[in-house]
């Protein structure tokens, strides 16, 4: 007899075109079969990733705009896919068995019915906590690794500036930069985060951008010898100020623009003469284009985490119902490190 | 007996902080000796280059701003150096003799006293007109060559957009792109220039940006399949519109920002989310960083000019006194191709 269960999941009520609020979301329920069809894998979700870029997928964009993006638009009432770790409940594929730990594209829900073609891999935790496989060993981790080494092309001794430095990506970039032999300054939005950057993550210096009335002067103060690399997570005025303080042949890696996701941010009005005369390169990138670096990335970060050379910051909320507030909090800077929701006990 | 002569040259009366007018300049006179001291070469200037970037050197910038630039600031009352072709009048160096044709850093004047260390090379015209050695075979030429091949990294069949396409650099970039097998559309500021791009230089299409009320729509119309490469000479709103119309992994090469030189232009407010999601690279560059490509560049363009595969556009005014109006005209778009002033008969 086919066993069916109720699966609760989070959906948007309608498209979101500004800063999100909890009311934009609802818990929905569907009935799913726990007997996997051929080529299907049914996964009980354990830890799921909460990422700012997902807001972009929730906008009412025209189809012409969305085709350039990797991730499909999120539709009201529908399940929202996300990176996560889970455990196989039933498998219609020979390569997965009941109770296997898996990592891949799951859902903001209790269960995911993973159809063929959707990203799913068996997970060997390698002695590291499961949430690490959502954060520092997941897409945020690859973003930091590929962004810093492939896009920023660092040289030892260079001056590196990281914005949103206590976030999932920035916290890793700063640590990679320090280990590589760069001078690293980060900025964040609270004294607590600033202390953490300096005391726990080993940044050479850090500041609270909310305390600064003039970002240009602030960067001049923190970088008397100029900035060689800017790892930008925020865009807007911070990007303008960083370009103004860059050295010749400086590089800007852009991996997200949190100031623009909510539509409330000011676009940066860059001094393009600076870009020309200082021969600056500004490059947008996505981790998905750097899967060729995946092997190097995993072996490097696993080693650093095990030996304690790097710290993983995971900010975990509990329960499916906490997803909307966890997500909304990203845009207020509530999280420290990678935001993850634990859906079920391991 | 030492022969001395009067040397007339052009100087600025004071620093220029906006669009230049002819009144900003004056003709000055100095007495120079025609007996070259040891290691000096005295050159009679024949053709000198007139370039928009020189305005930037005429601003009253702070020293901290100017140190990042390659060219020293221009001081009121002083001689203004520029790329040019001349003939040796007297030489205190064994490697130059009277009547040698030379190319290098000369002056907006009748004569240049070239001291040791200043760029000067013997010129073999290789059967090409002397003005070609100031323009397409000079720094504008290297800017176009290195910018297109090294910065834009073209692939056959890609869609290339060139702004200021009838200018010294743009006219060459468009021709390189066509010869390379790209689809090329240029924009310029008059119907006459547009006709020239299509009829003489072989651009696939061209438009007058002054006729367009919405640059974004114009680019959508001219690039229904999107832009892969944008060679930007102007910055401002054109750069915004180009980024909005770029394809994934698009590249923007920035070699000058004529809208910003005069301080009157609007800085581009770029949609950085586009830059991230489309993984766009925006790169400033200067020809001076690409001297390693000089040999390739010279052999390529010499061949193309001789065989008629490329056209050189030289826009020549005559007489030292015409320099201020030639220079001022650059910012009104008066020139077609490389602006050069002939100072003396060959």
Automatic annotation (TrEMBL), chains A, B:
It comes from the Eukaryota. Keywords: Oxidoreductase. Residues 18-341 form the Enoyl reductase (ER) domain. SUPFAM superfamilies: GroES-like, NAD(P)-binding Rossmann-fold domains. SMART domains: PKS_ER. Gene3D superfamilies: Medium-chain alcohol dehydrogenases, catalytic domain, NAD(P)-binding Rossmann-like Domain. This is Putative NAD-dependent oxidoreductase. It holds the Pfam family ADH_zinc_N. Its EC number is 1.3.1.74. It comes from Handroanthus impetiginosus. GO terms for molecular function: 2-alkenal reductase [NAD(P)H] activity.
